[in-house]
Amino acid sequence: MIENYVNCCVISLVLCGVLLAMLAMFFNYSLKLKDKSLQLEKNDKEQATKHNQNCRRIEELEKKNGNEQRQINELKEQVKNLEEKLSKYE
User: Fold this and answer.
1) 27 in helix, strand or coil?
2) How far apart are CA 39 and CA 80, in angstroms?
3) DSSP 36
4) E-only strand ranges, the chain
5) Confidence at residue 57, expressed as pLDDT on a 0 to 100 scale
């Protein structure tokens, strides 16, 4: 009778371990089994790729903004030159 309880406890402990492993995988964690140790790591590969894409997008926008700022500065200079020419005729 006691042996049945022991077997039942062993089976329930194994099932709990399996359920914990599946739950960890569901939340994007990876399990690393080493010499008598278990390590959980968060899988952030998707987050890292999104971060890299966002960084590249920011760089592109900064380049675009730099070109537009240069055009704005050139147009400001043209407006100043035209205002100076206009003020000479007044």
Assistant:
1) coil
2) 67
3) T
4) 29-34, 37-42
5) 92
pLDDT digits 0-9 by tens, 21-76? 888 777 777 666 677 776 666 666 777 788 889 999 988 888 888 888 888 889 99
Residue 31 is given by DSSP the state: E
CA 62 to each of CA 4, 55, 66, 68, 69: distance values in angstroms, whole numbers, following the listed order: 70, 10, 6, 10, 10
Q: Cβ–Cβ contacts within 10 Å for residue 42, how many?
A: 11
User: Tokens 């147009």 correspond to what residue?
Assistant: 75
Pairing of strands 37-42, 29-34: antiparallel
Measured distance CA(1)–CA(17) in Å, rounded: 25
Residue 56 exposed, middle or buried by CB count within 10 Å (0-12, 13-18, 19+): exposed
| Sign of the CA dihedral running 82, 85, 87, 90 | negative
pLDDT of residue 31: 66
